[in-house]
Write a structure and sequence with these properties.
464 residues, two-stranded antiparallel sheet, Outer membrane efflux proteins (OEP), alpha+beta, 2 domains
Length: 464
C-alpha cells in the first residue's frame, strides 16, 4: 500500500511537471509573438542630419533683381520663415496628436496551482477611459483654435517679411543714388581744386577761395563716407532678409511706386489682418480651455470588462466602473485661471485693434507731411537749377565770383539729396501701408509691378 501511494505521487508529479512545461512554453511563445507584432509596427529611429557645418546658401539669380522677384525669393529662402514653416508643421502634428484617443488598458494573468485536482486560473481585463469622449468637444475646439493661431501667425510673419524686403529694397536703391550724387559732387570739387591750384600760383585767386573749396571737399567726403556705411549696413540687412551670403552681389532695378488707392484702403479691414485673426483664435482657445475646466469639476469615468476563471474552473464575467474624483477644491483654481486667461486674450485683441488704428492715423499723417515737403522741394529745385546755370555763365564772363557758384551748387546738391530721401521715405511708407490695413504686401507688389511694367521695360541695373 505504501509503494502504491508513493508511485501515484510520482506519477502525479510527472503529470504536473509536463503540464507546467507546456503552459510555460505556450506563455513564452505567446509573449514572443506579441512582442514581434509590436516591434513590427513600431517606427524606427532616424538620426538627425549633420548640423555642425554651415547650411548650404541658395544661389542668387544671375539676372537683375526686381522688387517682386526679391519678395518671392525671400519667401523661399528667408531663414526665419523657413523656421516658421517647420514650426507650422510641428503645430499640425501636435494638433493630430491631440485628437488621438487614449489607449485601451489590457491585462492578463495566469495562475497555475501546484496541488492535484485543481485547474489553471486566469483573468483577462480590458478598460477604456470614457472621459476622452465626454470632453472631446472643448478639447477639439481648443486644438483647432491653437492650429489656426499657428497658421495665422505664420501668414503674418510672411506679410511682415514681404513688407520688410520691400522697404529695405527701396532704402538700398535710393541710398545708392544718393552715394552716386555725392561722388559726383566730390569729383566736381576735386576738379575745381586742381584748376584753382594753378590760378592761385598765378595770383588770379586768393588763398581763401582755395581753402573754402578744400573745406567743402572734406565735408562732402565725410557725407559720402557716412552714406556708404549706412548703405553697407542696409545692404547687409537686405541680404539677410533674402537668405543670401554676405558677399552676394545684388543688381537692383528701380522700385515701382506702390499702387494703393483710397478706395482699396477704405474697403480693407484691419480685422482681417492675420495677427488680429490669430488673437481672435486665442480667445476661442481660452474659451474652450474654460469650458474644459468646467467639465473637469466632475469625476473622470473609465469602463472595464473582465473575464476570469478560478482554480475550481468557475468562470465569471464582470463590468467595472472607475471614478477619478477631482481635487478637494472642485477644480475652482483651474477654472479661475482659465477664465482670467480668456479675459486677458480678449483685452489683447482689443488693444491690438486700438494700436492698429493709432498706427494707421500716424502713418497717414506722416505720408501727408512727406508729400507736402516733397512738393515744396520739387517746386523750389527748378528755380535753383536755373539760378545755378545763370551763375555759371556769368562766372565764365567774369561777372560773378566763383564762391557764389560753389554756394549755389552746394545748395542744389543738398536739395537733390533731400528730394531723394523724401522719395525713399514716401515709398517706404507706401509699402508699409498694405500690411497695416489688412492687405497682403506680396499681392500689392505683383499689382504694382504689373502697373509699372511699361516703366521697367529697360531697367538700368545698379550693382551694390
Amino acid at each position: 500500500m505504501f509503494f502504491e501511494s508513493k508511485s501515484a505521487a510520482r506519477n502525479g508529479a510527472k503529470w504536473l511537471s509536463r503540464h507546467t512545461f507546456r503552459w510555460l512554453a505556450a506563455a513564452r511563445a505567446g509573449t514572443l509573438l506579441i512582442m514581434l507584432a509590436a516591434v513590427a509596427g513600431c517606427a524606427q529611429y532616424q538620426p538627425l542630419p549633420e548640423t555642425a557645418r554651415l547650411p548650404a546658401t541658395p544661389a542668387p539669380p544671375k539676372q537683375v533683381w526686381t522688387l517682386e522677384s526679391a519678395t518671392q525669393f525671400a519667401f523661399k529662402h528667408n531663414p526665419q520663415l523657413i523656421e516658421s514653416n517647420t514650426q507650422l508643421t510641428l503645430a499640425r502634428q501636435q494638433a493630430g496628436l491631440a485628437n488621438v484617443p487614449p489607449p485601451m488598458s489590457l491585462g492578463f494573468s495566469l495562475d497555475h496551482p501546484w496541488q492535484q485536482g485543481l485547474f489553471n486560473a486566469f483573468s483577462l481585463s480590458v478598460s477604456q477611459d470614457l472621459s476622452y469622449w465626454l470632453k472631446q468637444a472643448p478639447r477639439k475646439q481648443a486644438t483647432q483654435a491653437r492650429l489656426r493661431q499657428a497658421i495665422l501667425n505664420h501668414r503674418w510673419q510672411a506679410w511682415q517679411l514681404a513688407a520688410a524686403v520691400q522697404q529695405q529694397y527701396v532704402t538700398v536703391w535710393y541710398q545708392q543714388k544718393q552715394l552716386r550724387l555725392l561722388q559726383a559732387q566730390i569729383q566736381w570739387v576735386d576738379q575745381r581744386i586742381t584748376a584753382n591750384a594753378a590760378a592761385e600760383q598765378a595770383g588770379l585767386i586768393t588763398a581763401d577761395t582755395q581753402a573754402l573749396l578744400l573745406t567743402n571737399a572734406a565735408q562732402w567726403q565725410q557725407m559720402a563716407h557716412a552714406a556708404n556705411l549706412q548703405r553697407i549696413k542696409n545692404l547687409t540687412q537686405l541680404r539677410q532678409l533674402l537668405g543670401l551670403p554676405a558677399d552676394a552681389a545684388l543688381h537692383l532695378t528701380k522700385p515701382p511706386q506702390p499702387v494703393l488707392s483710397t478706395r482699396i484702403i477704405n474697403t480693407s479691414s484691419i480685422a482681417q489682418r492675420p495677427d488680429v485673426l490669430a488673437l481672435k483664435a486665442a480667445i476661442d482657445e481660452q474659451d474652450a480651455q474654460y469650458r474644459q475646466a468646467l467639465i473637469d469639476q466632475f469625476p473622470s469615468i473609465s469602463l472595464g470588462l473582465t473575464r476570469a476563471q478560478d482554480t475550481s474552473k468557475v468562470q465569471t464575467m464582470g463590468v467595472g466602473i472607475n471614478l477619478v474624483l477631482p481635487s478637494f477644491d472642485g477644480n475652482r483654481h483651474a477654472i479661475s485661471v482659465a477664465k482670467t486667461s480668456r479675459k486677458l486674450a480678449a483685452e489683447q485683441y482689443q488693444h491690438r485693434l486700438v494700436q492698429i488704428r493709432s498706427d494707421f492715423a500716424a502713418l497717414r499723417q506722416k505720408q501727408a507731411e512727406l508729400q507736402r515737403a516733397g512738393r515744396q522741394i520739387e517746386a523750389n529745385l527748378p528755380a535753383l537749377r536755373q539760378r545755378l546755370n545763370e551763375a555759371e555763365q556769368a562766372m565764365a564772363q567774369g561777372l560773378v565770383n566763383a564762391n557764389t557758384v560753389d554756394t549755389l551748387r552746394q545748395t542744389v546738391v543738398n536739395k537733390r539729396l533731400a528730394l531723394l530721401q523724401n522719395n525713399a521715405a514716401r515709398q517706404r511708407a507706401g509699402y508699409a501701408l498694405p500690411a497695416l490695413v489688412g492687405i497682403d504686401p506680396a499681392v500689392l507688389s505683383s499689382l504694382t509691378s504689373s502697373s509699372n511694367a511699361a516703366a521697367n521695360q529697360s531697367p538700368t541695373p545698379t550693382e551694390h
